[in-house]
Amino acid sequence: MDAIFVFEQLLNGLGYGLMLFLIAAGLTLVFGIMDTMNLAHGSLYMAGAYVAARVHEASASFALAVLVAVLVTVAVAALLEVLVVRHLYRRDHLVQVLATFGIILIADDAVKAIWGVAPLMASTPAALAGPVQLIDGLPYPAYRLLLIGAGLLVALGLYLLVSRTRVGMLVRAGASNRQMAEYMGVRVGGVFAFVFALGAALAALAGALMAPISAVQIGMGEAILIPALVVIVIGGIGSIRGAFVAALLVGLVDTAGRAFLPPALRAVLPPSVAADLGPALAGIAMYVLMAAVLTLKPAGLFPARA
User: Which residues cross the membrane (predicted)?
Assistant: First the structure.
């Protein structure tokens, strides 16, 4: 294990963490401001991936595919908010969980009906298909560098939106104290609709960007939802800063665990034991991180409602 391999895995962890941030940022705002547990958030991620893959295949334009995926997913989310989610705002969390879980099942069946059960293999944009020589001995995929750059740009834009604009002020007010924001005249319904649409756009963007490096398949939304929930718990519910820091931590810990634990165990344990134990320990690394953070800071690293 050399320095080049370690650096490459750190870049992989950074890219994964930034994609997790795109999903977790919308999820933490929806839960923090609207007090609504939306388990169907992962289905919006899946929708973005499927639409982007199909549009890219038909048009050969990756930029167009990402744009169409975001617009279509936001439109679906707006319809979902009006027909279902809006009626859950004042219901308890159990009802919200059951209702949005039902949406997951409907979304999975809708994908089966539209695109079939077979996974889609989304192609990488031709201009980004090759590697970039970062340093001697480290050719790194150009597309993964795009993921890192796009994630950082979106994170910066979201930070500026939340911290430097009037809309962001209303979002922060709702996350900090929703009832007081209502008393001060904030149009909570409009803020809720904006936050839900923003969360859907971020989830769709993450799905569209992740499609070329992961299998686009039914259930991918549920698979990414668990790490996203871990991120918002570690970062603090309703906190964009917390989601960003926690997403990077989870991305790095998860990637490092999968890359470094199995070979480290093979060096000290019999191969048969290491083959079973390594992946198991790597799979629980982010949960160990969550437990450690919550032991020290039960409300998360940067809770919005401190």
Answer: 14-32, 62-85, 97-122, 142-162, 183-209, 215-237, 244-265, 277-296
Q: What is the pTM of this model?
A: 0.89
Bridge partners for 219 per DSSP:
none
| Structural Rg of the chain based on CA atoms | 20
Domain boundaries, the chain: 9-217
Q: Chain-centre distance of CA 109, in angstroms? A: 22
At 101, phi and psi to the nearest 5?
-65, -35
By the 10 Å C-beta count (0-12 exposed, 13-18 middle, 19+ buried), 159 is classed as: middle
Beta carbons within 10 angstroms of residue 161's beta carbon: 14
How far is it, in rounded angstroms, from Cα 225 to Cα 21?
Answer: 12
Report how far residue 155's alpha carbon sits from residue 235's, in angstroms, rounded to the nearest whole number: 15
pLDDT band, very low/low/confident/very high, at 302 (cuts 50, 70, 90) = confident
Question: What phi and psi values does residue 176 have, to the nearest 5 degrees?
Answer: -80, -45
- In tens, the pLDDT along 177-216 reads 667 777 777 776 777 788 889 999 999 999 999 999 888 9
Cα gap 210→78, rounded to integer Å:
23
Contacts of 238 (CB under 8 A, 6+ apart): 28, 29, 31, 32, 33, 175, 176, 303, 304, 305
